[in-house]
Amino acid sequence: MTFTLTLSGADLLLLLPEMLLTVWLCVVLTMDFAMPRLPKDRLAYLSVAGLAGVLANLVWFDLAGIGGTLFAHMFVVDRLAVFFKIFIVGTTILVILASVDYVRRFRFFKGEYYFLVLMSALGMMFMASANDLLSVFITLEFSTFGFYVLVAYLRDDVASNEAGLKFFILGVFAAGLLAYGISLVYGETGKLVFSDIASPSATPGLVIGFLLIFAALGFKIGAVPFHSWIPDTYHGAPTPVTAFLSIAPKGAAFAILIRMFFVSLAAFKPAWVLLLVGASILSMTYGNIVAIAQRNIKRLLAYSGIAQIGNILIGLAAGTKMGGDAILFYLLTYLFANLGAFAIVIAVGNLIRSDEIEDYNGLNRRSPFLAFAMLVFLLSLAGVPPLAGFIGKLYIFLAAIDEGLYTLIAVGLINIVISMYYYLVVVKKMYINEPTDPSPLTISPPMKVVVYAGLAGTLFLGIYPQPAINWVVAATLMFSNLAGPAAAAPTLVLPIGG
Amino acid sequence: MVPLSYYVILSVIVFVTGVVGVLIRRNIIIILLSVELMLNATNINFVAYSYYFQNITGQVFVFFALTVAAAEVAVGLAIIIALYRSKSSINVDEFQLLKW
Amino acid sequence: MTGSEPLLDYLGRYFSIVLFIGIALAFGVVTLLISYLVQPKYPEAEKLSPYECGSEPFSDARMPFPVRYYIFAMLFVIFDIEVIFLYPWAVVFDKIGLVGLVEMLVFIGLFLMAYVYAWKKGALEWD
Amino acid sequence: MLYTLIPLLPLAAFLILGLFGHWIKDRAHLVAVPAVLTSFLFSLFVFDEVAGGKNVTIPLYTWLTSGDLRIELSLYFDRLTAVMLLLVTIVSGLVHVYTIGYMHGERGYARFFAYIALFTFSMLMLVMADNFLQLFVFWEAVGLCSYLLIGHWYERQTARDAATKAFIVNRVGDFGFLLGVLLIWLSFGSLEYRHVFAQAADLTGETLNLLSPIGGTWEVSTLTLICLLLFLGAVGKSAQVPLHVWLPDAMEGPTPISALIHAATMVTAGVFMVARMAPLYNLSAAAMDVVAVTGTVTMVLGATIALTQHDIKRVVAWSTVSQLGFMMMACGLGAYVAGIFHLLTHGAFKALLFLGCGSVIIALHHEQDMRKMGGLKDKLPVTYWTFVIGSLALAGFPFTAGFFSKDEILVEAWSAGALGKTLATFALVTVVLTAFYSFRLVFVTFWGESRVDPQHAGHLHEPSRTMTVPLVILAFLSIVAGYAAIPDFLAPVLPGPRGLAIHHEHPAAGGMMAIAAVLGLVGIAAAYLVYVTSPGLPDRLARQWQRAYRLSFNKWYVDEAYDRAVVRPTVRLADRLWTWVDVAVIDGAVNGVARTIAWWGWLMRLVQSGQTQHYALGMTLGAVVILTVYLLL
Predict the structure, then answer these.
(1) Domain residue limits at C15
(2) Are residues C81 and C95 in the same domain?
């Protein structure tokens, strides 16, 4: 066997965003230990500057339509990958800005915090480009390692330690499942690249293998029944880390899920629709119902996140280009609304040192801006028009209706009503209940930037979604050939009438 | 020559041992070791298949799996030390502050 | 699944494995369950002590190692394992030329940075 | 441009107040009032142009397109839109003016104006919608504004759950509505009114099997299903049985809001929607019957309950429920024109009544209990006279606006077959009840001896000019609106199921007019007998009996007999209806469902045991179950 290894300039160009970020995170780490006196806030802004450069680079990729594959098709740059990279980098920028106040509370290792965030972002960027199962495994683990440490970052806080422990044990367990699944798929096909393993016949080894891979990715996105780490980890982790964890890795995992289901498994759609419909129904219902019983806002958002993932899975279950569009668009709306909501939780937590929903009583009196922003974010998460979340849900439902997934849509709609209840409980506490301590709350400039960004995104995507829709439609162009209306719907979701 | 299926059965045994270990052992370090067993089952599979297909990809995967396993151990040990400091215990069922 | 002749063959071959997985899992679950249900739970100080009868233990048998040891161990594990990437590189070094060399230099450079970081942070000091 | 500005002006007012509210503060009305009044002027122009018979569609922008899906945001104007625009802008403008006085010096003055401007914008967009999605979006948006405004006075203990309740109950209706919209998308492949209406007739024979997911067979006409699902939304929004529970509770909000949202505009959106969808409903007799019967039940229930309430605003609120039922009944019987006509006149006189209540409440320092009022007519002359006019209109007193519109509905209903005759009979009974409770309100509040808390009795005075002027204007409209030839104006755009419906020459018309007028008068007279001639609350009666006012012996005796024979059973029945049907059954069901779900939440969270290995086990079992399903399937 012979290989030649050549890397042309064009090849290197494809790696440019990742290389930039790698260099930049080295710079951040070096500055942290080489200049111990440097205020650590500067590192945050330095990181943001670097990420802004990467973002500019990615936007250029997107506009210029630069694409290609590298390393024997392991690494792909196409518009889908670029979309997810922009998603991840954007999230990271906002998370870092939202972290500045919080990080001041740390006693040790303030600088490393930013380094680890950047490193996780780098891992997730690679995830977005993963085009075979080997790179799925490596990049998934790469991005998760940073999170293991970040979740347990509050060294003296028992909850943070415990959250780190649970995340770690379940995470490596999922990694074990993933690796074994990949080995089975390799055993059946002898290949690892997504487009090569699109085998024509489903053998049990392949089924078990893909199910194990799905279990690991389901763990990553927090879909029932692989969700159990989510509430505890979200609850115990430092809040900015929770915010990061609730958005970016899910986006990156969806990049992989979309490629896996739409490319490798396109031929088996009737078989996997059942799986996704089940996971979606369970996630929505379980997340929403249990969220009602929560008293901690982070746990509430954790369960609501499980339910939101259920909604996104509807788009995956649709299995069409429009379903893909809907997933991407929904993720965008979820980014702004969820990150915005967490930004409020971080801000309030910094000020009053509590994440209990009880302590949001009368927030409107203490800070009308925070209360209003939270209202917008929660209503967007609940899918109230004309906010972004409504368009996201509508898009998903319309994609599903074209595929005849009526049962799923009905369950989704009922779940919207249920979810309304617990979002409104928070709103009611903020607006109607009396505060125990009426002193006004003010927030710092970087925090304000994050909240404003969330508000702007939530409103803009709701009122004028067209540019974003054009963007996501372009990002999924490669799936235009996917099966149209309900080619062969499985028995569970019979179309009604016709 | 040993048939491929022997390797596969061995790897299944090792994998299931790992899974069961994760599920029933209380000591976090042993849980970590069980996860390593799961990854090693993967490695057995990959090497066997790689030989069977005469295809190097599987062996490449093994290299990376080993690296990932090492990194897992390192991060895991760090977390375990932090836990031990706060609770003086590394029994997994003593950490159930966060629930419901 | 698409039902066909090869599939049934396959099922036949894999059935024992599935059965095995099932039995093993069931064994784990049942063992856990039985021990949980059957075990008497009357913990008291005497019962929890290592020797319920006999001489009193005068210190914990498990001596805690200094934390330093773990840090060294972790660093060793990490740096050690990366060497495995050098072997395949060395095998094909003459075929992949300059690009391979530069890539390996970048790889080692990153490790060097990690090493410097650990050093600077005092992780290599014995106390 | 002119057309576009109608909704944009209130929106601009909202944005300005929302962004710079903390800076504008007490001058907020200088932004909001001119914006809405200008909108009103433009609406007049539009009315004039549309009256010429032309329908205008103005595309604003393409909201979203993706594949086959294409949703425009546009403004649609026809005669129905034009009259609704006038109603919304007039009432909104007057409420804006009224608010200046009512909310004067309150905290959140600017925010309040911002919300009502936003509400006005949303309501305008709702009536101008030209596709179902736009309708739905603004349908939700008005609900949201209502939510924000009900919760505005968070000082009040009782305001707390009212807002949430209103929103949740409405979401139940909206669930049906959205399902209806999705079904329309599925059946027609378009969401635009004109496409849907044009193709509606092609769908008449189509059926859907509702039980197919579980293997059964239950064929339902697609059109009927669409109409019923849409109607579910209207049931929520227009407070029809069984989703009416939120409206009376919503009275916890500030009174101008009750006038604008919970009387004149938002709650009538359901009726408007049914009328707008007339081309669909006309094709489904079953759906029409459901609409009519639901409306009638609501009408009777609301009227009986209004008899016994003590809170002044709740009486008016229950009356609104009843009147909405009346309109819904009209629409269900195909009398869309009459329904919308009554919607318009009702908008005027009910807004008037609410604002009148507001004046009383302000004068009495937020006292809402009628038993602590009385004798206010000399202290608050303007409020009193306008209130009387409003009540006359509500009671259907001859030559007021309410008389004409009620009569229109009754005549049309009477001519709509057997069902129509039955329902019209109920409506006639309701006319008596309506007249009775509306004048009970007048007599108890304004007549008789003052029972006002002496603390406030000394300085009772008419509220400021900004509050009385809107009352006078609305009183004027409550009379003249009946003389505008609105039915003839609307008839071309709202064809009933039996074609264009103008039958003023109907033989029953004159008789019905007379009967309704007499019944209204009977109701008023009964109220006069009970509450004025003998200020006869039972306990007080008993006390005066003991003191032996011999002179009035006979009168008392008659009155008590009357009380025993008529009033008490009615009161008892109404009380029972309220406590059993409403509180126990419907409220109970709504709360029960919510409680059950919450209970499941508490139970299911226990799965999250906190034990890491349980989680790992859960993941493994999940994977094994999925695997088993796949390998066995």
Answers:
(1) 1-62
(2) yes
